[in-house]
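name: query_chain
kind: protein
chains: 1
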Amino acid sequence: MDENIPQKDAAQCPEGAEEQFSLGYADKKEVAKGGVLGFFIGLAIIVPGVSGSAVAIIFKLYEKLLYAFGNILKQFKKCALFLVPILIGAVVGLVVGFIGVQQLINLVQFAIVALFAGLMLGSYPAVTDQIKDEKITAPRALLFALGLALPIAFSAISCNIATGDAVLENAQWYHYILFLVLGYAVAITQLVPGLSATAILMMFGYFTPLVNSISATYWGANPSVFIIYACLAVGFIVGLLTVSKGMSVLLGRHRAPTFFTVAGMSLGSIVTMFYNTEIMAYYSSWGSIFAWWELVLGIVLFIGGVAAAYFFVRYERKHG
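structure:
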């Protein structure tokens, strides 16, 4: 037996214990899937509402992703080899999201958001596939409803309670603690479907300042911002290691209830793509003929996104 592919042993693995996974990629196609998953994880940090973990569920890599992050200190080589294509894709997604998608959003924000929302809705059956054979009970229905409400509640807070953009300059010691916490919160959004990193950062007023700080000019004038980046990175890494472990335990011991909650959160994240701080500000600028033209374009892209993603889900079902 290959020692790199740990097997679950009924005699040695008590009920509720964490299941182990083979993390090897079967072929180049699987490696490409890992890269695409990473791309969406990177994109999710920039584009409101995009959920990298929902994409992981579609690609059937979600539980492996959780396992790899949660066990990288114990099984570094195996977990690192699995994560390398995902991390490369995440860097590409972050750069593309910052340079490309963000520029398109500045031009036709509603249309681009509608396209991503269509892709998320079209792929939603891949999430519900995880619970299609499970009995719907009152507690599970309640968990679904709570999952649905959570991302919408976060967006409502960011839209109605947030008081504007914060500043990164002249940070005090307690601000660095806040940035550690924010980094941890962003890690949670990358591992729990339905939560948005941008919504969290917008709620505290740090999304736009952080995006605007990415420039050589700003770095030269405010070198202390690198301490802020470091705090965010440390919080993010600690969050990945701990939250992934917790989610793995939940899926191992309470798989069906957890996925009912995840299904609700994934659906709620689609709603929040049309209801967050940035898009609400964009709505307020509508009123011209151009807005109606973009509305039509958005509807077309939304339908196209639903069709394309659902076609992909059906392909994955057939060849999975």
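note: Confidence is low (pLDDT under 50) at residues 1-19.
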